[in-house]
Design a protein that fits this description.
23% strand; DUF4836 family protein
């Protein structure tokens, strides 16, 4: 599969189109979703929608992002080829994916697959069993498609029936030595893809194919999650950390634990988790996990030109969250420039680093653990003294954040750097910021290593001072409020008038990034142009990146610790 990279990009293109479109309103009824009626309320993992979105509208947004799957489909003509000894499950799975991708190239949409024009799908767990479920269009198109793939791939399905529901099995090993198989079924106007296990069929296949007694649609979990975190009704995601830990440490705690234990026994691994299943371990592991019970994600906003995705590790311990928030530093607005090729900011309050780490250290070491794995971990922590960090952070006291930005970059010029070091300065403009409570004090600290810094007369809002002698290349430093700003590059000083005075040093996050996608892809394309022109892979990648250069927009991301937990947000804004 030498063109696997192209296949991955195609898949991401499709996913981007689906995810970057707003569908439905914030107030929705999960009970109206036929797929959700099959998802058990106690599932430990879920990704899907309460309100599905139109395929046509999703693809329109995908094209707007410069990700047209039909553009790339010709690049992967042999990407779906398998060896003669490949198992039936791999042949059917790859064959189905090939049909899915071909529908884009032919612009026939998903009708050729028997899927509705407003695709309604979910991936979830039934106990410890993964299940993919899709709503069909009311015809037998999907069933006939599977039979067609079987013929093309020279595969014969093992057709079975469970309580009146027919399903087809395909082995994961050529010699059927692996006691697992791929299962595909179409019933009740829905397609199901799952895995058969060594367990008897009424313990896995039956529960995967039929409706649960209590569904996630009835539980209200998804709509509650949307309300609490501002998620939209599609592209929702969660992992129930607490339920997983309960199932691991106490097999009878939930359906996940029951099936996991049965699978371990069936595979000859009975007792593999015994060390974690003592009463002490069950209690202590569960208590720790309860601090971070769930990971979740979803889109929070969308307009004609902008979409924002939020992912979070939900925190339930208010005291711990308050302590961790002390790490939050300052991310300078001077890096928030959409015209830069890219920029990165790291916000850490160095004065709070030791107190926060000490607090967390004390929380983990003060209460003795009886569970052996946790007791061992605790013993190791007690041998470490977080106060030693004070010696490391003393020299950077007062710093609240640092940032780095690439204003402009000419890859062609940089290629000459080995023979002409000044080519770096001529071909690149960079900006570096250091945000501090008293930025001038940092220069005094630096003077102990480089005395010339003590002689610098840097005034807030004044002209930049040259660092040519110190760095051996065009560079200068200026003071703008709480920001020390270093400009690197022959033409970098031209950026100085746009640098703002940072008067507010309040904590506003842990990390930020920004990328002008079009400019970034220009750099990637210039690198690709140096690849072997006779390489088929190189030519395919060049064509792909040339297409991605057409995306005119900015991607931004942030990481923060809030009262909700650890929160990451990523946005795309088209120009």
């Amino acid at each position: 599969m030498k063109k696997l990279l192209i296949v991955i990009v195609i898949a991401l293109a499709v996913a981007a189109g689906i995810y970057f479109y707003k569908g439905g309103s914030a107030t929705v009824a999960a009970k109206d979703n036929s797929v959700l009626a099959y998802v058990p309320a106690d599932t430990v993992l879920f990704t899907g929608s309460v309100t599905p979105i139109s395929f046509e509208e999703a693809m329109a947004m995908s094209h707007k992002l410069g990700l047209d799957p039909s553009t790339f489909i010709d690049m992967q003509d042999d990407a779906f080829e398998l060896g003669p000894d490949s198992p039936d499950a791999a042949r059917i799975g790859l064959g189905l994916y090939a049909k899915y991708m071909q529908s884009f190239a032919d612009k026939t949409t998903v009708k050729t697959l028997g899927i509705t024009e407003t695709p309604n799908a979910a991936f979830y767990m039934v106990g410890a069993l993964p299940v993919m479920r899709l709503e069909l269009d009311g015809t037998d198109t999907f069933a006939k498609l599977i039979e067609q793939i079987e013929t093309e791939q020279n595969v014969t399905a093992d057709v079975k029936n469970m309580d009146g529901v027919e399903f087809r099995e395909y082995s994961f090993s050529s010699d059927k030595s692996v006691p697992y198989s791929l299962v595909i079924s179409s019933h009740d106007n829905q397609a199901v893809v799952t895995v058969n296990t060594p367990l008897t069929d009424d313990k896995d296949i039956k529960v995967a194919l039929n409706k649960p007694a209590n569904s996630i649609a009835d539980s209200g979990r998804l709509t509650t999650m949307m309300s609490e975190h501002g998620y939209m009704g599609h592209s929702l995601f969660f992992i129930d950390n607490l339920a997983i830990m309960k199932g691991v440490t106490n097999p009878q705690a939930n359906s996940f634990g029951v099936m996991l234990d049965e699978l371990l026994v069936a595979n000859g691994a009975q007792g593999a988790l015994a060390d974690m299943q003592t009463p002490a371990c069950a209690s202590e592991f569960t208590a720790l996990t309860a601090n971070w019970p769930t990971m979740s994600g979803g889109y929070t906003e969308f307009s004609a030109n902008e979409a924002n995705f939020k992912f979070m590790l939900e925190g339930a311990n208010a005291d711990l969250l308050k302590s961790l928030q002390g790490l939050r530093g300052h991310l300078s607005e001077n890096l928030n420039n959409d015209d830069y090729v890219m920029s990165f900011g790291l916000g850490f309050d160095m004065d709070q680093m030791v107190p926060v780490i000490t607090d967390v250290w004390q929380r983990l070491t003060e209460t003795p653990y009886e569970c052996p794995p946790l007791a061992e971990m605790q013993a190791g922590l007690k041998q470490q003294n977080p106060m030693m960090l004070g010696m490391m952070t003393g020299m950077v006291a007062g710093i609240k954040g640092i940032g780095f930005g690439v204003v402009e970059m000419d890859m062609a010029g940089l290629e000459q750097a080995s023979s002409n070091p000044m080519a770096v300065a001529d071909s690149m403009q960079m900006i570096v910021t250091v945000s501090a409570q008293k930025p001038k004090d940092l220069l005094m600290t630096l003077s102990s290593f480089a005395p010339q810094f003590a002689q610098m007369d840097i005034k807030d809002g004044g002209d930049a001072v040259s660092l040519q002698d110190q760095m051996g290349m065009p560079a200068s430093i200026a003071l703008r409020g709480h920001d020390l700003v270093m400009l690197v590059g022959t033409d970098a000083l031209s950026q100085l008038p746009s640098i703002k005075s940072n008067k507010d040093i309040t904590s506003n996050g842990l990390f930020s990034m920004s990328m002008n996608f079009g400019k970034y892809m220009e750099l990637i394309t210039s690198v690709m142009n140096d690849m072997d022109a006779n390489s088929e892979m190189a030519q395919d990648q060049k064509a792909m990146f040339e297409k991605l250069k057409e995306v005119d927009g900015t991607i931004k991301g942030t990481l923060d610790i809030t009262d909700e937990g650890v929160v990451s947000e990523t946005s795309f804004k088209a120009k």
